Amino acid sequence: MQLFKRIIAIYLILGFLTLAYAQTESQLSRSAGKLVEDSSIDLESKVKLSEPVESLASKEDSSGDALVEQDTQQKFEISNRDDQYFSIYDADVTLLSDLDYDGYHHAFNVWFDVDVSYESATVYAKLYLSRDGEPWRQYYSTDLFSINGDDYSDAYEVTTELIDNYPQGHYRILIEIYSLNHVGMVTSALLDYNYLGIAVLLEDLGRDESDIYYYEEYTYYHGGVGSFSMIWLLLIFQVVIAARGARVKPR
């Protein structure tokens, strides 16, 4: 009976540690962007050379956005222009890589065409992901680029590879556009797959290639309480000690 209670207690501790570990894990991805018509840049090669970055806090925590906007205002001396209106005329997502052929991709491309009602503007985009209704998390911010009226040649694209801690699921993609001449977001768009009204099936690289060869989940590990392998070793060690203790007869 004592052995059973000890095992239950160990499993409860393991569950708590696993939950704490999952909550402290960082979502890692790497992305690269360019104007669609810029043939001098190979996005896939640029992505491979990029360092993995952590996704930012969810949109429910607006402090990060406020700091970015404040920094942008100070750096570029933003002035409001009420005569300009923005819209994302067209946008789409293309799935790029599914190594284990299970329908869930770890790499994808987002492209979008931003229009402005009058003259030209300098803008940048923030891209977000949300899995199965969870809070939005920003995974990339583009460089500055120029748009001209409704010109289609200024369309922009971003290729992304999800590296770690993106569980298999149905993801939505959000694009937010910011202008140097305006304070705050000027337009946004929510993407679905091929205009079918369904979320995009994504997972990280580790899960995508797990059926092909062994992958160590801590390869891109940042922070947290440790790897799952150490937790399981601790569990086995505790069970062995408890079992030996149960066999010792009292004098």
Can you describe this structure?
The chain has two domains: 1-25 and 224-251; 27-208, Immunoglobulin-like (Sandwich). It is α+β, with helices and mostly antiparallel strands and 251 residues long. The longest helix is centred in the N-terminal third of the chain and has 23 residues, at 2-24. It is built from five helices and eleven strands.
Briefly say what this structure is.
By secondary structure, the protein is α+β, with helices and mostly antiparallel strands. The protein has helices at 2-24, 43-49, 63-76, 205-208, 228-247, and strands spanning 28-35, 53-54, 86-97, 107-116, 120-131, 137-141, 145-148, 156-164, 169-179, 185-191, 200-202.
CATH architecture of the largest domain: Sandwich
CATH superfamily of the largest domain: Immunoglobulins
Uncertain runs are 14-24, 61-79, 212-229
Structural class, by secondary structure, is alpha+beta
What would the principal axes of the Cα set say about the shape? elongated
Q: How many DSSP-defined strands?
A: 11
Highlighted features:
Immunoglobulin-like; alpha+beta; 11 strands; five-stranded antiparallel sheet; elongated; 2 domains
